[in-house]
Amino acid sequence: MTHISTHVLDVVTGRPAVGVPVTLSDAEGTVLALGTTDSDGRIADLYTGPASGVHRLRFDTAAYFAAQQVGVLYPEVVVAMDLDNTVPKYHVPLLLAPFSYSTYRGS
């Protein structure tokens, strides 16, 4: 079993990005989980289950920035990950700005 969580930080404001819709899908595009970041910018329990091979996290950044009344270059961020079912936990943070983003494997 694999556990997937995420955290989104708005690096312009230095605050958690609240209300970002996130979708997890497998390589075939089947949606496995949906969530929205909480008041701390986190989705602690996005998915727990079998996960091996390529999966994608899609962050709906357009919805977030529209709520902030800020224009955006990247209306979505898609993070493709090659998951190993023997790894019990993946935490994928997203550092977000209207005209850039960065991600890494967290702990």
From TrEMBL:
Per its record, the protein catalyses: 5-hydroxyisourate + H2O = 5-hydroxy-2-oxo-4-ureido-2,5-dihydro-1H-imidazole-5-carboxylate + H(+)
User: What keywords does the record list, in alphabetical order?
Assistant: Hydrolase, Purine metabolism
Any GO BP: purine nucleobase metabolic process
Cite the InterPro entries for this sequence: Hydroxyisourate_hydrolase, Thyroxine_BS, Transthyretin/HIU_hydrolase, Transthyretin/HIU_hydrolase_d, Transthyretin/HIU_hydrolase_sf, Transthyretin_CS
The enzyme's main class, written as a single word, is hydrolase
Q: Which residues form the Transthyretin/hydroxyisourate hydrolase domain?
A: 4-106
Positions bound to substrate:
H7, R42, Y104
User: What's the Enzyme Commission number for this chain?
Assistant: 3.5.2.17
Q: Which domain of life is it from?
A: Bacteria
PROSITE patterns hit by this protein: TRANSTHYRETIN_1, TRANSTHYRETIN_2
GO MF, one annotated term: hydroxyisourate hydrolase activity
Identify the NCBIfam families for this entry: hdxy_isourate (TIGR02962)
Function noted in UniProt = Catalyzes the hydrolysis of 5-hydroxyisourate (HIU) to 2-oxo-4-hydroxy-4-carboxy-5-ureidoimidazoline (OHCU).
**Could you give the subunit structure recorded for this chain?**
Homotetramer.
Family the UniProt entry places it in? Belongs to the transthyretin family. 5-hydroxyisourate hydrolase subfamily.
Designated name of the protein: 5-hydroxyisourate hydrolase
